[in-house]
Amino acid sequence: MESDMLNLNYSNGLIPVVVQDITTLEVLMVAYANEEAVRLTRNTGFAHYFSRSRKKIWKKGEESGHFQKVRQILVDCDEDCILYLVEQTGAACHTGYQTCFYRTLDNEIVSEQVFDPSKVYAHKGQ
After folding, report:
1. Domain assignment present for 125
2. CA-to-CA distance for 38 and 41, rounded, in angstroms?
3. Can you give the pTM of this predicted structure?
4. DSSP strand pairing (68-75 vs 82-88)
5. DSSP letter, residue 114
6. How far is CA 112 from each of CA 14, 37, 102, rounded to the nearest angstrom?
7. How many domains would you assign to the chain?
8. Under a CB-based contact definition with an 8 Å cutoff, are residues 66 and 19 in contact?
9. Does some domain include residue 29?
10. In terms of CB atoms within 10 Å, which of 30, 32, 88, 113 comes out highest?
11. Measuring CA to CA, which residue among 94, 88, 83, 81 is closest to residue 10?
12. For the chain, how long is the longest CA-to-CA vector?
């Protein structure tokens, strides 16, 4: 997939990325990528995203060790969203859950926590 094929005009040069487990097809997370993040993902085989809050590219798992090995990248019909099919190491969510979609609108937890974020990210902010 050529990056010029993607509609990166969405949300200031960013494109939404839906992330699915390649085996279970469970939706793990939704993030954003810019052209460089997509290029890094393609070149390394590991998921890279653009953090809107930190305004920088990050490699999934660089702090937690919970990497995403990208097995396939699909683009939607409008070329304004991409899908990463990944092999997830550990949990996808920074809250410690396997997926970012771990609760209902009524705040009912429907998943188990895989790790304790206070231990994994203990060095942050120090």
Report:
1. no
2. 5
3. 0.87
4. antiparallel
5. -
6. 31, 30, 8
7. 1
8. no
9. yes
10. 88
11. 81
12. 44
- Distance, in Å, from the CA atom of 86 to the CA atom of 12, rounded to the nearest integer, reads 26
Mean pLDDT score, 102-110? 96
Assess if residue 30 is contained within a domain. yes
pLDDT band at 88 (very low <50, low <70, confident <90, very high): very high
For residue 13, give both structure tokens: 């040069």
Residue 7 has pLDDT above 80, yes or no: no
Token pair listed for 32: 């954003």
- Provide the pLDDT for residue 120: 86
Distance CA 19, CA 84 (A): 5
**Residue 126 falls inside a structural domain:** no
Inform me whether the pLDDT recorded for 9 exceeds 80: no
Query: 68 to each of 8, 27, 59, 106, 119, how far by Cα in Å?
Result: 22, 13, 9, 29, 20
Return the amino acid letter for 61: G
CATH number at residue 115: 3.10.20.810
Q: Residue 88 belongs to what domain range? A: 3-120
Residue count of the chain, please give it.
126
Contact assessment for residue 79 and residue 6, using Cβ atoms and an 8 Å cutoff: yes
